[in-house]
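User: Second chain of the day. Same drill as before.
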Amino acid sequence: MDLSVVVPTLNGRDRLGACLDALAAHAPEAEVIVANGPSADGTTGMVRDRDDVDVLVEISDRTVNVARNAGIEVATGDAIALVDYDNRIEAGWLEAVRTGLGDADAVTGPVTPIDPEAERDGEERDDERPDGERRNSDEARGGPERRTIANTEVTYFEGGNVAFRHESLRDLDGFDEYLNTGGARDAAHRLAQMGRTVGWQEEMAVAKALPNPTAADGGRTAREWGWKYRALAYRLLKNYGVRPTVAARAGTHAVADALGAAGDVLRGESTPSRWVATGRDVLFGLAGGGSDGLVARSRDRSPARNPNGISKRADRAVAKYDRRASEE
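Assistant: Same format as last time:
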C-alpha cells in the first residue's frame, strides 16, 4: 500500500514540526503533503527547510476543508490519510492504517488530547470535540461515534486522524468547502449514504498537542453558535432533505445548548443579554444553513452530495513546492 499523508495547517509551526517529526519516525515511506493556509508564523520556511515533506501547497483560504482538498488533489498514494498539524502519530499507527483499510473504505482511531502542563507530569485530560459535543466514555474507550439518522447508520470519524482508500475520496469528491466547521461529519454522512464503511483501529492512535482554544476545523471556536448551527442544518438538509427526524435532531441540539447557556447565566458566568444573543445566533444559523442545504441538495443529486467539492474549483493553490519533481 502506497500511503499519502495530508497535513492541513494554519499558524501552527511548532506543533506542525512535532507532527512531521512523528511521521518521519513512524511512517518514513509515506508521501507527506502539507497544505498551508495563510500562516504568518514562518511555517512556509520551516517546511521548505525539511527534506521529509514531499509537497507544500500554499492556499489563501483559512478553512480546513479547502486545505484538505488541496492536499488530496496532489496526493498520489492508493491510500490517503489526513492528520491534523497538532496531532502526532504513534508507533503502530501505520500498520493499523494498513489493517483497517484492508477491511473498510476508511479507518479512524483514537485521539488523545495532552496539554503541555499535563504532558510534563505524565497526565492526560479530556477535550471538547470540535463541534462542541463530548464523546461519551464508551465511545472514547471502545470505538467511533455512531448515530442512526433517517434510517441510515452513520459512523463518524476523527477528521484529524483518518485514512481512506483513494477511490473512496474520489467518489466523495473530497470535502464540502461550504463548511467552515463540521466537514468531517458531513463526509461521514455521505459515506454512509453511499454504503461505504468506516472502520476503527485502536492502534491507529495519535496524541493531540494542546492547548489551543481555536478549533482547527476552520479556525473557529466551539462556542461560535451561528456557524455551529449553520453547519448542522446545512449538512442534515443537504444529505437527508426535510424529514421529521432531521428537525428533531437539530431541535435536540438547540434545546441542550439553550439549557447549558441558561445554566451559565444562573451561575453568573454569562448574562441574560448574551443568552438572548446566543438564541438569535442559533436561529439565524439554522435558517441560513437549512436554506443553503436545500439549495445544495437540489444542485447535486449525485450520491456524493457535494456541490462544493474538489472537482468544482481549480484555484485553491496560490503556490506549490513539489520536491517530487526535482527528484525525478
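The CA atoms of residues 176 and 327 lie 33 Å apart.

User: Great, on to the next one.
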